[in-house]
Amino acid sequence: MKRNLTKLALIALAATTIFALGACSKYKGFKKDKSGFYYQFHGDIHDTADQPRTGDLVGVLMSLRAGDSLLIPMMPNEMLMDSLYEGDMFAALRTMHVGDSATFILDGPKFFDKMMNQEYTFGEDPLYLDVKLYGMMKKADFEKAKAEFEAQLDERRVQEVTEIDKYLQNNPGLKQAETGVYVKTIKKGTGAKVEPLQTVKVHYTGRFTDGTVFDSSVERGEPFTFTVGAGQVIPGWDATLSNMKVGDKVTVLIPSDLAYGEGRQGIPPYTPLVFDIELLEIVKE
């Protein structure tokens, strides 16, 4: 009987040893998740906070690195939770709670292939993802907010037509060009006409239709230089300058589809813009 107990004890010890070896990670300080990635959490675990699920909108601070290379520096990012493959970045994020910070080791070749459509060029070096999950919006709330925003955009599209009509009524002399912009010549120049891909120097003042100035090279005291037709400015500017001569000064009303469309910082969605533009010179190369 004693011999049998000893044998059973050895079997149990061997099983425990095998299990312990299987649970060990090849990366010091990291544990392996069942879906394949490795993880290490930092600081407190906010286990009473929400965890993101597929379809939720998350706000993260994240960086990406491989070997000695910092591929993406730590920066804020907002993304919709998805699921592209087993053990992907989203699977890692689903293990976090809002407020948590962690480092994940992901399958580099698969990450680059599925998420970046690129080849992983770092050999056997692991791919590290450093993340702080600072906020999230649940799928239902996000879809509601998205629907409300799209309704506001639709309303702005209708308002823009009325806004343009009102401005044209109050500012006679603006004529619509074939390009879609509305132009009024303030002063005719006698210089050369602009040719495609020429670099020009201009002074301008940009304002909304209510007269509010949002940008002005005149106020800065420094002309603006760019290449016409190279996509360096909004389409309405390229269209306007391509028909100007040196010395011309015009007022142009540019609909949003030739300006900033759904908006940018400082410019609301579907906003027509008014510019006073003076062509100072064509820059000789």
Q: Which structural class do you get from the secondary structure elements?
A: alpha+beta
Mean pLDDT: 91
> What percentage of the residues does DSSP assign to strands (E)?
25-35%
Query: Which percent bin holds the helix content?
Result: 25-40%
The sequence of SSEs as H and E is HEEEEHEHEHEEEEHEHEE
Number of strand elements: 13
Largest sheet: 7 strands, antiparallel
User: Which consecutive residue ranges, at least 5 long each, have pLDDT under 50?
Assistant: 1-5, 7-23
Number of helices: 6
User: Termini separation (Å)?
Assistant: 100 Å
Report the principal-axis shape. elongated
> What is the alpha-carbon Rg in Å?
30 Å
Structural overview:
The structure is a single chain. By secondary structure, the chain is α+β, with helices and mostly antiparallel strands. Helix content is 27%, strand content 31%. It has helices spanning 2-23, 89-93, 108-115, 139-170, 217-220, 235-241; strands at 31-32, 38-42, 57-66, 69-80, 101-106, 127-137, 175-176, 182-187, 199-207, 213-216, 224-227, 249-254, 273-283. Strands 7, 8, 9, 10, 11, 12 and 13 form a seven-stranded antiparallel β-sheet that branches. It has a six-stranded antiparallel β-sheet with strand order 1-2-5-6-3-4. Strand 1 (31-32) and strand 2 (38-42) form a beta hairpin. The N and C termini lie far apart (100 Å).
